[in-house]
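Case study B.
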Amino acid sequence: MPDLSAKIREVVQKMLREQEVELVIGFEQGSMPLHSTPCFIRNEEDAQRLVWNSFCDNNLAKYLVKRPEKVAIVAKGCDTRAIVELIKEKQVPRDQVVIIGIPCQGMVDRRRIEAELELNEILEYEEQDNKLTLKGDGFTKTVNRDEYLYPCCQACPHKNPTTYDILIGDMVAEQAPDQYPDIAEFEAKPPEERWQYISGEVNKCIRCYACRNACPLCYCKECFVDKTHPQWIGKTTDTNDTFIFHLMRAFHLAGRCVECGACERACPMEVDIRKLNRKLAADVKELFGYEAGTSLDQIAPLATFRPDDPEEFMLGV
Amino acid sequence: MKAKVIKKDDIAGFLDSLLKEYEVFAPVKRDRLVVFDRIHSGKEAFLNYTTSITSPKEILLPQSETLFTYSSTDSAADVEVPSGEERPRLIFGIHPCDVKSLIFLDRIFNEEEYKDAYYLGRRHAMVVVSMGCIKPRATCFCTSVGGGPFSTEGSDLLLIDIGDEYIVQVISDKGEKLLGKAHLEDAGEDRLSLMKRVTQDAEASMAPKLNIDGLKEKLDKMFDDPIWDLLAEKCISCGVCTYLCPTCYCFDIVDETRNSGGERLRLWDSCQFPLFTLQASGENPRPTTKERYRQRIMHKFSYLIDNCGQIGCVGCGRCVTECPVNLDIRQVLTAISNR
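Model:
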């Protein structure tokens, strides 16, 4: 994957110099190997901190909602999809954000690298082209980054920015549209098996809400789980309570989830959160031909109504 | 200090013998993650781990627990308190930083003026068999906050991995008694010198200590410092750091009522959530991430010193490795110290 860091810095420096924006949100080197971390740049010198590599996985659109100043944002495909939805949902004024679009080649799943390679702790790494060289106490190992992409990146049909003001890097080839084979396979299982799987996943949840808080589209000022007058759902880690949180969240994201996988990456307990979100994304695509965040013009299906809308899922129809 | 030796292959059998007398908690593997859980067979224990994802605090302070149940009729009300633990508990294979967190929790739930019966029911007579860290992670910083990879504080026995065997250091009478029927061989000179090498190597491999001398004095003058805006800027206000933290103990009390009965629950809560300080009037004294993040740092490194004479961090590094946005407390503490 090409190192676009220098180019990003150059563009950002110019923007700040010319006072086109007050703030730039991008990535800088993280405090651990295989980590990049969100950073907030307000002056030219600090632009040197910006990086672009295989670990820029956070969805930075999270930081755009209700900002007072004009902002530029470094955005890969899924970040731009989230920005598009936020603009359509009137959370981000289009003229208050400058999108620095970056064609993305997928981000690397560091947990899978650590788990599958069974190496001792990785203490250093280098990235060059498609190779990641991992170093630790008594080992050096080189792997192909493309073999360790996050599941959402493997399935991603929108690696290129869906909208942007400035493009850095060359557009990459998009893969075929996502047919959701994992969802079809899951749906083919008997109900008991599906129930067992989902409740097993939900039971790992510790209700830290990292999934919700990392999600760029979870911006409600007050989440339904935080309502106390009346209290809407139980707050224990009992399967039913936790299930309701995950189900409601998935429904609330129907037609809005951009499948960036931020929820799953944020989850410390490795809950398969995307299973529910992908099911709903697959349904929305099939029923309404809509993929969240791909177009600024297309009206979100759950924000509109047509007499001929499919409604087999309505109770009693 | 007495030191015995046990073969790694004999650990499962040793645990099985302990299971006859104790409720045993140990690190276990769940899919790719290591957590602490109650075991029913010695084979379940997974000791070759660095840091468990969740901390063993949940053994003493469950995420959700029933304080009492209640029911009422027109003429009477009935309250029932759950019965306490029947058997003494034993934690096996816990690292010294996490043991330090148990001592920390004792200061909160078992102090002069306030003794928490639920906590004490679980903590009372608990036996702690800890395991030294022969491979501290790069994110571990126990030595910066008063601990160490082979600290014996709070343990009854301490195991140290020397290859195919563990050295078993006998720390307390309780530990001595625990070994009573096991008939373990004395460690002997050769093994002890091997242990010394292993522990020295591990200590040498620790990341350099954080320079946080005088942190509290700095913090006490920094409540209104604009640095908090910058430090907390990327925080997404989730509960990962607080829920994985072995010393974060804040809780919420909730009544769940159905018809004429229900239960009063104690649940973990997190100062990072907006609801934590939301008042009935609608006022929230910590309305944004800045105030909430500041609270976490202030509580751990200043207020707790005032209130309990100890800081609220054992340097386990869980909040460092698991923060979804890599907001690294080590960098935050360093930035404050350099202010």
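Residues 85 and 309 of chain A are 21 Å apart (CA to CA). The remaining cases will be described in the next quarterly update.
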